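Interim report, section 4.2 (structural modelling).
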Amino acid sequence: MTAHTFIDGAPETGPATTPLKPGTGPGDTAAAGQWRLIWYKFSRNRLALVSGWVILFFCFVGLFAEFLAPSVPDASRPQFTNAPPQQLGLFVTGPDGSSRFQLHVTGYAMQVDPASLRRTYVADPDQVVPVGLFVPGAPYRMWGLFDTNIHLLGPLSPGDTMYLLGTDRLGRDLLTRLVYGTRISMSIGLVGVCISLLLGVVLGAVSGFYGGVVDTVIQRIIEVISSMPTIPLWLGLAAAIPLSWSPLTVYFVITLIVSLFGWTGLAREVRGRFFALRGEDFVTAAKLDGSSERRVIFRHILPSLTSHILAVVTLALPTMIVAETALSFLGIGLKAPIVSWGVLLQEAQNVRTIANAPWQLVWPAGAVVLTVLAYNFLGDGLRDAADPYES
Amino acid sequence: MLRYVIKRIFYMIPTLFGLSLIAFMIIQLPPGDYVTSMIASMQDSGANVDPRQIERLREIYGFNDPIWVQYLKWIGGILFRGDFGYSFEWNRPVADLIWERMGSTLAISVASLLFVWAVALPIGIYSAVRRHSVGDYVFTFIGFIGLAVPNFILALTLMYLSYRYFGQSVGGLFSPEYVEAPWSWGKFVDLLNHLWIPIIVIGTSGTAALIRVLRANLTDELHKPYVITAKAKGLPEHRVVLKYPVRIALNPFVSAIGWVLPELVSGVTITAIVLNLPTAGPLLLRALISQDMYLAGSFILLMGVLTLIGMLVSDLLLALLDPRIRFT
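Predicted structure of the assembly:
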């Protein structure tokens, strides 16, 4: 049984890798797998790491929107239109000057403009509205599964107001709408990117694997699509959605429109990698072993570019989010009763509204910008880490 | 060179064809056609609509033809007679409405492109030469913000800031007193006063992208042996940098027309809607909302053609600059 003795020698040590710089990653980098190496490299990029947490936070907010929001998005109080944000405080000072712990927000004082007789609200620090955690409020159906009315944060007595980010022109709580909008805006990016991923990977793989006429045709198509100014095209397609369609259908069609133009970058990346990899030894070996073409593409080549695809996808996500926001902002994307960041921004379309109630621009716009930035930093970090064997 | 030019123009034909198909598809997308909506509005106003008259109208407008005949008629009209169809909302031929708007779209796009170049070149060089300096980090940070803030949000913010702090409203291209006035020096100055906001809004993301590209290219170039040689021979730094590496790193500036221009045209569309500029954008949006599809389709087609021509120009310029390209 001498034929097996070579196994008894030194323990097996994984594939030969160029180790990272000494002292850069914990543990034994020489024997670490590809994903572990990617993680070492990625986690050294602080900005990307923080961005990852920001994205996770937004996803969390979107997932638990009903519970995290202080109210429901369509609850309006016409008497509190364009009310400014109420400040959240921790301690209240009693009449005797002693201070005790009590979560609260400052109340409102009503002012009547002597010229226009318009009512406006200003924050009045002397008034205190006590608020609490896990308080009952407007009833909702969590994930469409069970009814409840517990909100994370809300006023203790149901008649009081708590508008941490102010209200819109119909007296609806902006924070609530922003939280619900997070769900729609984040998910549109994710769903859209899945469609783009499918188109981009399949077309890019076919194009790069076969080359020749197929490649030329696909490359021409990509060229046509990427040479078009996107916003006019999105406008043209979105405007064709009939008004009678249900909000959910509109949501999916908008996602489709947004993703139809987002796959080209991914297809190019996948094609380039396929060109580089199809001459590699392991591909030749797989072919000689009699693997079908589909097996070679999907089992042998694609897994080796997963990390690159992940990076490109992350960089494609913000484009989708901005696209949806822009369309909804112009009034031909998502429409009420769906709430997305773009729908919220639509309220802040003219200078007068912004001047009266700047919070209607600041918060939704801030959410969009923060998300886009975070995705960009995360994508950059992933791209740098995607090839851990590079120095 | 001539061979390259001809080849390049020849290459444009299938792309143009694809573009026209997409524009035609958008025209055809909304359910029903113009006659349907005309009948609806006639019935709303209480008029009796004769079915034979409807049939006659459909015949006149060619709505009964098979789809490819309609396409051929449409594209034939554009190519041979400059006839873009009829705007049913404005009751005028589309061709009367679009040229002025396309002209201002082109003018603002080109002005933004010049802005992008003028700003990105010095900052890109500075960032590459003084890598990891405070200035580099500041510009990188601003660049990231520029990439991340969508055009229309930037426009809204600038509108708000200028309203809040300068008390002036920034919409439009002219102050009211100059809109109808003939061209004069005063009108020109007034135009410049209004133009800077849209140009900054439209150009920022392109500038940020180009700075990143230039910085990366120039950094690669600066580490090459010939630069070290030049430095060792005692050339002053500005000559070392400007004489060769910058010239080589300039290629992406020219090829940038290809990918920045679609972005700019796109940006002009949405920014113009927010800032109410008399370009194609607001008219396109209005046409789409009222389903005036020939007008909308013509705008989309022409915007595409505009970017294609921009790409052609950029490729030809690149070939002029860099002989390696025209011989491959």
